[in-house]
Amino acid sequence: MKKVNHIKKAAWLIFIVLFIIAVILTTQAYMRFQHEVQSVRERLLTGSQVIETASGPIEYADVWDGYPVLVVHGAGGGYDQGLILSEILLNGDFRVIPPSRFGFLRTPLPANASPAAQADAFADLLDELNVSEVAVVGISAGGPSSLEFALRHPDRISSMVLVSAVVHKEEPMDFRDKIVHYVIFKSDFIFWLITKYFESDLISFFGVTQEVQAKLTPEEKYWLSDVFIPSMHPISQRQPGMINDRINSTLLDYPLDQITVPTLVVYARDDTLVNPSHSQYATRNIPDAKVITLESGGHILMGQHEMVRSEIVKFLEQHTQSEK
To answer: What pLDDT, in 10s, does the model give residues 290-315?
Structure first.
């Protein structure tokens, strides 16, 4: 009996020690999280401005010089993701205007947050900036509002590039989707922990397979780990927009054959986040659309950035005209 009691006491003591260690480690992690995310919040406030438009307040950045390009970010983004991807997809010869879409960062989610309303808000933003015509680069979940802009404001767009873009209707959220959007993406701390300790799995979730990850150069690994993924913090300030995107994706039905703007479609066959069927559908239905089909690279076109940038810049320069 005494031996059993000693075993129970020892087991209880081990449990207490492990619990204390877990509390200490969690506390240390939380303090590190608070420091990092606070730095991100401060950076976000200095990199953009909010302007009042006929569609309400819109956050945006306005950088570089040249012909204006409206860069429409995807899920998990905001104006900052637009800037980061502009550095990858464009060179410095364009004026880049990346807004935060509805529900992302400091652009509020209005009662009508449809892609059509978002497209009209883009037009209102351009009015405030005295920009009459732009090229549009729509990335991932930025695809629907880019398409709507081409359909609703054809006189204000000179060319359009769709990169790994959402184009056609998606299935409603299942249980897994709801856990991701309503739990993980709502908690800055949970998402931060995932980025720190399950980064490879997170990158796979965002459409870059393990096979592609294994072939990344040190520079590409740095870009993913230290530039792209950190740009999604704080995730809670982007969650309303992501939910809105996901809900709207179940309603998409566009007359793509009515798009008259020159269009370039870029995607990778191994994209596991946005099914390649979206880009293939756009290529088939948008009149005279050009397409760049990559065999690998995933959703973010890893390993292909230099080639893709060259093709996109060439396409934009070919179709841009002097701003009206």
So the answer is: 999 999 999 999 999 999 999 999 99
